[in-house]
Amino acid sequence: MTTILLSMVILTWFAEIDSQKCVYRDPCICRFDHSAGSINFGVEGGVIDLHRISDDGNPLFLDPRDSGEQIYEYSPCRAYPCPTVKDSSLCLTTKNTKQVLDLGDLKDMTFNTTANKTTEKLHTSMNYKAIGSNITSIVHLICGETNEFRFEKMTSGYNYEFTLYSPCVCVDGCLAPGISAGSIIIILFFCSLLLYFGIGCLYKKVVSGATGQEIVPNDKFWFSLPGLVKDGYIFFISPCLGDRAEYRVYDRL
Q1: What is the distance between the alpha carbons of residues 128 and 89, in angstroms, rounded to a whole number?
Q2: Counting runs of H as helices and runs of E as strands, what totals does the chain give?
């Protein structure tokens, strides 16, 4: 009975972890969707978006080996073809033999997420397959302050592992800046002001037959406003003016 309960707990744990996936949106975007009953890692609704670091179709990252013989080229968001593979995203070029090897195709890419129960953190990687071969590549995404691409290791002659460091692999790290609440308020204020004067002037012109400055709605208030502002300013700074003439027009409190 104890074994059955333990198995159920383990299966439930893995089911909860599995629900915390960064769901594929396109080859450079995934979103951590909220799932009922899932463990909260603080990333629900968050997005990983690499479009801000790769948009021109050229290989964004180069990782030459110490010997200079091998160069790994990576373009995460747009295919940068190896000579014989138009949809390649990862390429290996060996200089001395001039051999070019496709390590992963843009159309055969998936996001994979694993969880660390101890640290309560998620790790996301981009997994690629090369069409027409057994080659697979894993690009581990590590949140960092600068963009850097590294080859890590090769296993079994077919499996390659890389690490991509970038602010854009942080959750919500490279989202396009949105409009702030203050900006929205300012936009609404000036739109309201424009409507106020536009409709008010049209109404007084058509209905009242007003001309000149009388066409402005509440014209007496608006044309006296600069003088009121000036008087208020002088009154505000009057303690600093001493016995200047402008100050003497007000009664001391």
Answers
A1: 9
A2: 4, 12
pTM above 0.85, yes or no: no
Domains and CATH numbers, the chain: 2-169 (2.70.130.10), 181-248 (no CATH)
Token duo for residue 239: 């303690």
Average of per-residue pLDDT values in the chain: 76
17-71 pLDDT, tens digit each? 444 678 888 888 888 876 544 455 556 678 888 887 765 556 678 887 665 688 8
Which pLDDT band holds residue 160 (cuts at 50, 70, 90)? very high
Nearest residue to 100 (alpha-carbon basis) of 110, 109, 90: 90
Closest CA to 47 of 111, 109, 107, 106: 111
Q: What's the one-letter identity of residue 116?
A: N
Closest CA to 124 of 42, 20, 51, 37: 20
- For residue 162, the model assigns a pLDDT of 93
User: H/E element holding 49?
Assistant: strand 47-49
Residues found in the chain: 253
- Position 115: which residue type? A
